[in-house]
Amino acid sequence: MRARSSILLFPMGILAILLVPAVTAQSQSSGAYGITHAKIFTLAGSPIENGTLVIRDGKIAAVGATVEVPAGAQVIDAKGLQVYPGLFDAVTQMGLSEIGAVNATVDTSETGSYNPDVVAATAVSPSSEHIPVTRASGITEVLVVPGSGGFDFFGARGILGGQASAIHLAGWEIDEMLLKKSAAMVLNFPEIQTETFDFATFTRKEKPYTEAKQEYEKQVNELTDWLERARHYAQALEKGSVAKYDRDLKLEALAPVVRGEQPVLAFANRARDIRNAVEFCDKQKLKMILAGGAEAYKVKDLLRSKDIPVILRPMLSMPPEEDDPYDRQPSQPAELAAAGVKFAIASFDNSFARRLGQNAANAVAHGLPYDEALRAVTINPAQIFGLGSQLGTLEPGKLANLIVTSGDPLELTTDVKYLFIKGQLTSTENKHHRLYEKYLNRPKAQ
Amino acid sequence: MRIPTPRNAARTRLSFLSFLCLLYFPFFANAATPPPDAPPVILIQNATILTVSHGTIEHGSILIKDGKIAEVGQSVKAPAGAQVIDAAGQFVIPGIIDCHSHIAAESINEGSVSVSSMVTMEEVLDPDDMDIYRDLAGGVTSANILHGSANSIGGQTLVIKLRWGQPASKLPFEGAMPGIKFALGENPKRSNFSIPGQPKRYPATRMGVEETIRGAFSEARDYKKTWDDYNKRVAAGEKNLIPPRRDLRLEPLVEVLEGKRYVHSHCYREDEILMLLRVAKEFAFKVRTFQHILEGYKVADELAAAGVGASTFSDWWAYKVEAYDAIPYNAALMTRRGVIVSINSDDSEEATHLNQEAAKSMKYGGLSRDEALKLVTLNPAIQLGIDKRVGTIDVGKDADLTIYNHDPLSAYAVVQKTLIDGRIYFDRERDITGRADLEKEKKALTEKLKKAAEKKPEEKKPEEKKPPEKKPEDKPKPPAPTPTSTAARAGAPLGGAL
């Protein structure tokens, strides 16, 4: 517990973080909780005023206005507070990268262009400082994306970047954290790049369109070839004749992809690249999730007609083109929602993951209905990665990943008072709180 | 010594798309011609006015005359002929001041030497930079335009007003003290940047950074003495003296010694902050602000005692080792210990929501609403020495105002209008209604270009042309690379504004 004496010094300053759970996280084994007198936003119906939510065995046991708290459960009186599903950040490098500028702490991208066999979960550091910092903003689960996923400027950026893992933001080691080890295959869809940057000379190089197109086609052919081989391999697996082959870990990893069981998380931003990716995945019968989607609004009808969900990059981004409207990015979600495109909003980052709610709120400020914004950071990403039956709304039987807040979880000034992951009351304390406390209490310098 | 040069000397290309951009905002297109001398008389009425200096006025009005705030209150009447802006349900704050920006600059990094005090941002001002308009649309009215941070002593800085549509000569904030960028830590020692085949540059340690600055000021002190002696002898009536040779590198440092130029020093770690304070004491100059200063909370008392301002980020961290102890409570902790603190952007996108970034200090450290708002209005004004002109809503100050549709200390607020000197430089409604025409105009121009290209088949197809790339500026904020920005980001190691 924190030093109460400092309240006297800075009454306003410390309020925000002193309101830590009255129930401590030590009682992790007992497992039953009753959250009472709360306004509960289930996202599966209208909010429940003065409601009760019961957690048992890691799951939501009951939720409603007339629910009884079972005997023996720890009670959290949440009068004046609100309950929401925990937020789901659908593209991060959580645990793969600690300090961006220090290579030794970065495990985001393998070398080479085709690494379908590498799995993000393998390199997630459970004790990364980013995890508790992110958790404090109400995020309870994230997708960890390897292979750069389009936001690592210096790292290698292969075409098949590896398998993205969905994890809970709590756990002593990765097995406890895992939600879905192989949630999607990262595909950095080839772009027709007429401009590149040469690191050796630190200059930009322009390339004629025809040449750039040729390179693009070469990459697409390569990718097609990989998928063809994976298909043969998958057939061999099915017919049990794989013994005749040398085991190929990369093709083995691609088998669920070519069978359409595992989605590809295809990174593309420009309308042309998105169209190419959609056409390609259609032809190859891959289950596609678009990530990035800076110009998704230009192809919204296509995305809608093919039922391709989108993980949108942050609203707090500059427009892709110099002559785009200044609010191009924050106004896009409203357009996609109106067109019936399913989307999630993600941070595409680690240290800025805590801006997830802020990004969603900025979309609301530019016309996205509030409920849609909430869904875009909870149930939508869960459904997109096939976790909708386990997470994303507050319904009996679902995992108890939820937050109790002082108000709107998308707003800048809202505090997360209690946070549950898999039904366990989990601390929101982190490195930033510790440093705050330490230096708040530094004796006055001479 | 500032050498006036024609603007845009360095501007070499005006591509098709940037030409389009000039046409992009028809309202401002004619602003390239000088504006009328007399600014309109404007009354903003029915607004919630967050004055920053004297509380909040509900249902208040602001009368603007001659570009200045003439009256503020609940019972201000519109004079005959005044343009009335009905701001019912809206919020007015003093225009946002960004104490660390790299917009409106053709380039920001003279990275070849560790003392580049001879270069100045004024000579590379780019009034056509679209980021000026975007930041204006985010409520920013003034910005401190800084050189990059690759040098222990970097280039000269300049405070501008975001007078979009005006020529470069009209951007500088009249009478604002000029400044100079210093930088400490990883960037000037080039820790995170190496160019293959290029030898390491001195300094490569924090020790060397200190010595580079001490060495430069030793020279500057000698140089000043040479000139002082010469001037004394001239004043004494001596004839036929040969003046000392001018040194353009040392002149700005002499201005620092004479208190005529502000030092804005990039820094991160507590130890390097105290190092520069010691050097400043040794050479008897003042540090005006520390920039970034993500470990400022560790030495807040020392900062307060030295009377130096701190301009920091809201919640950036972990992008490099010296940012690993950064905490979002930094602004609040320093404020509580008596430091004048501002929140800056260092990034043209971040600048579009500085109101939101300021609001975070209410959550992280419990600043009051007024204290939070000061972080992006009055405090940066004080730090830049322009608080007599801007930073609060008070009679006599410049009518630099931002109008929101919602409480500005919230993520749901959207800027409706931005005024500078009593003129509306950004109007959201006008921007939105103008978009269809611009789209039409762009289509027509694209068609024209396509036709021209068809005649000359050897030329590149128009749609493959890209807008001009941004200067290589260090933008760590990772979200959302786009094909056009990838190269600019990749270029970051050259500079390092961050």
Fold topology:
The complex is a heterodimer of chains A (446) and B (498).
Chain A: H1 6-9, H2 11-18, E1 33-40, E2 48-56, E3 59-64, E4 74-77, E5 82-85, E6 87-92, H3 120-123, H4 130-135, E7 139-144, E8 160-168, H5 174-177, E9 178-188, E10 195-198, E11 203-206, H6 209-238, H7 249-258, E12 264-268, H8 271-283, E13 288-292, H9 300-305, E14 310-312, H10 328-339, E15 343-345, H11 356-365, H12 370-376, H13 379-384, E16 402-405, E17 416-421, E18 424-425, H14 431-440
Parallel strand pairs in A: 1-4, 1-5, 6-7, 9-12, 12-13, 13-14, 14-15
Antiparallel strand pairs in A: 1-2, 2-3, 5-16, 7-8, 8-9, 10-11, 16-17, 17-18
Helix pairs in contact in A: 6-7, 10-11, 11-12
Chain B: H1 16-22, H2 26-29, E1 42-50, E2 56-65, E3 68-73, E4 83-86, E5 91-94, E6 96-101, H3 130-136, E7 140-145, E8 153-161, E9 179-183, H4 206-235, H5 251-257, E10 262-267, H6 270-283, E11 289-292, H7 300-306, E12 309-312, H8 330-336, E13 341-343, H9 354-363, H10 369-374, H11 378-383, E14 401-404, E15 415-420, E16 423-427, H12 428-455, H13 483-490
Parallel strand pairs in B: 1-4, 1-5, 6-7, 9-10, 10-11, 11-12, 12-13
Antiparallel strand pairs in B: 1-2, 2-3, 5-14, 7-8, 8-9, 14-15, 15-16
Helix pairs in contact in B: 4-5, 4-6
Give a description of the structure.
- The complex is a heterodimer of chains A (446) and B (498).
- Chain A is of the alpha/beta class and 446 residues long.
- Chain A has a domain at 92-386: Alpha-Beta Barrel (TIM Barrel).
- Helix content of chain A is 29%, strand content 22%.
- Chain A is built from 14 helices and 18 strands.
- In chain A, the strands form 3 sheets. In chain A, strands 1, 2, 3, 4, 5, 16, 17 and 18 form an 8-stranded mixed sheet that branches.
- Chain B has a domain at 96-390: TIM Barrel.
- Chain B has 498 residues and is an alpha/beta fold.
- In chain B, 28% of the residues lie in helices and 18% in strands.
- In chain B, helix 4 (206-235) crosses helix 5 (251-257).
- Chains A and B meet through helix 2, strand 10, helix 11 and helix 14 of A and helix 1, helix 3, helix 7, helix 8 and helix 9 of B.
